[in-house]
């Protein structure tokens, strides 16, 4: 069996995107999630992806 390349090792996290009641990104919640993921030792984070509210963000909120 061949060895797995280093780029495919470790944990990749796809956290939810926390939002407030108005649908705005809860930046404090995002920071808290990222801190916990970093402390857990994840190697990659897929932020604002299909697991959150990305599809509902305005262009300025999503950085487009």
List keywords for this structure.
mainly alpha; two-stranded parallel ribbon; elongated
TL;DR of this structure?
With 64 residues, this protein is mostly helical.
Give the arrangement of secondary structure elements:
Layout (H helix, E strand, L loop, with lengths): L11 E2 L13 H14 L3 E2 L13 H4 L2
Parallel strand pairs: 1-2
Describe it for me?
- With 64 residues, the chain is mainly α.
- Helix content is 28%, strand content 6%.
- It is built from 2 helices and 2 strands; from the N terminus they run βαβα.
- The chain has helices at residues 27-40, 59-62; strands at residues 12-13, 44-45.
- The protein has a two-stranded parallel ribbon.
- The protein is elongated and about 50 Å long.
Number of helices: 2
The residue ranges in which pLDDT falls below 50 over 5 or more consecutive positions are none
* Helical coverage, percent range: 25-40%
Radius of gyration: 15 Å
